[in-house]
Amino acid sequence: MTLKEYRPVSMVGSLYKILAKVLANRLRKVIGKVISITQFAFLEGRQLIDSVLALNELVHDLKRRKEIGILFKVDFEKAFDSVDWDYLDSMQSSLGFRDKWRGWIQECLTSASVSILVNGSPTQEFKMQKGLRQGDALSPYLFLIAAEGLHALVHEAEKKNLLTGIAVVRDLSISHLQFADDTILLGEASLKSIRAFKFILRWFEIISGLKISFSKSTLYGINIEENWLNMAASTLNSKCGHLPFLYLGFPVGGNPQHLRFWKLMVEKFRSKLAT
């Protein structure tokens, strides 16, 4: 095991847990109003299955119309551990959060300290400089705010005609879907889209602190020749995948008219209902 493979284990104190829960409950009531509709995680009225069904419907429609498109499944490296705090504060400001609230959040973030076990013995504690703590009630909502920056970059790229999403109906296209750090970028099958994907993700890395593992990310094509898809994946330094594939634990790109397509989904629902 290398140093990069180690992950921090959070030990959150009882007093902090109470404070974080109070702030998280306040944030939960308003965050759905400022987070874009392309994000589905941790928000009331938005479900994991909504994202999966939307993606499946889009892929099925493209296949039915015999039109082409590309999907890029983005792999984030230790996403929660690498969020830059200054960036997070800037995102809160841009979404309309007041100075007092942002000060409370900053106090919560900077209160964290770290100790490393060396041969079973802890070293002297030192302050964290980035990242969101596991087990912290605030962390899921703060990550949504951080992920909103990616939405803003994609939206800006569309406005400047650098990226064109996949058309659903006239004047409506889908260019990205987000469920926490599970992100799919969508676009027309063109080198312009490939360059836009890379440009957007590189910029997001720089401003947010989040690291994207391009080598673990996967490019999928709909009605596209294998040679072109391999070339495009090579440009992104990513893997080349084939339909169907799993997204959020569910199959995407299969034939929804076949019973086996729904088998995994039905089993998951049965398992959840049984608990």
TrEMBL record:
UniProt source species: Rubroshorea leprosula
Stretches assigned to the Reverse transcriptase domain: 1-252
Domain of life, per lineage: Eukaryota
One family name in Pfam for this protein: RVT_1
InterPro entries cross-referenced by the UniProt entry: DNA/RNA_pol_sf, RT_dom
Protein name: Reverse transcriptase domain-containing protein
SUPFAM superfamilies: DNA/RNA polymerases
